[in-house]
Design a protein that fits this description.
Elements (H helix, E strand, L loop, with lengths): L1 H17 L4 H8 L3 H9 L6 H11 L3 H4 L13 H10 L4 H15 L1
Helix pairs in contact: 1-3, 2-3, 2-4
C-alpha cells in the first residue's frame, strides 16, 4: 500500500506544481488542511477517494486525468486565473451566468 501512497502523492505534487499552486492554495481550494496535502504528497498518508475528488476539482481536472499517471499534459491543467474565474462563476445563478457568457463572447470576438 505504501507504493500507491507514494505514487498518488507524487501525482498530487506534479499536478499542483503544474497548476502553479502552493500547498496552502490547493488545501484551501480543496477544503483540506495544509498538513493533509503535505502528508499526501509525501506519501505518508493514504488518500481517500473523497480527498482525491476534492483535489481534482480544486485543480480543475476530472478523476480520469488525475489517475493518468503517464504524463502531465499542460492543456489538462487550467491556469490559476482560469481556476479562480471558474470558482467565481460556479457560484452565480443561471441568469447571471448567461450574462457573463454573452460578455465573454463579445470580448473574445
Amino acid at each position: 500500500m505504501k507504493n500507491i501512497n507514494r505514487l498518488v502523492g507524487k501525482r498530487i505534487r506534479e499536478l499542483r506544481k503544474a497548476s502553479g499552486m502552493t500547498q496552502a492554495e490547493l488545501a484551501e481550494a480543496a477544503e483540506l488542511e495544509v498538513e493533509t496535502i503535505s502528508r499526501l504528497e509525501q506519501g505518508t498518508r493514504g488518500a481517500t477517494l473523497d480527498s482525491i475528488d476534492r483535489i481534482a476539482q480544486a485543480l480543475g481536472i476530472g478523476l480520469k486525468e488525475f489517475f493518468d499517471f503517464k504524463q502531465i499534459r499542460p492543456e489538462v491543467i487550467p491556469s490559476r486565473k482560469l481556476l479562480r474565474l471558474y470558482r467565481l462563476l460556479e457560484k452565480l445563478p443561471e441568469l447571471e451566468l448567461k450574462k457573463v457568457y454573452k460578455i465573454a463572447r463579445i470580448l473574445t470576438e
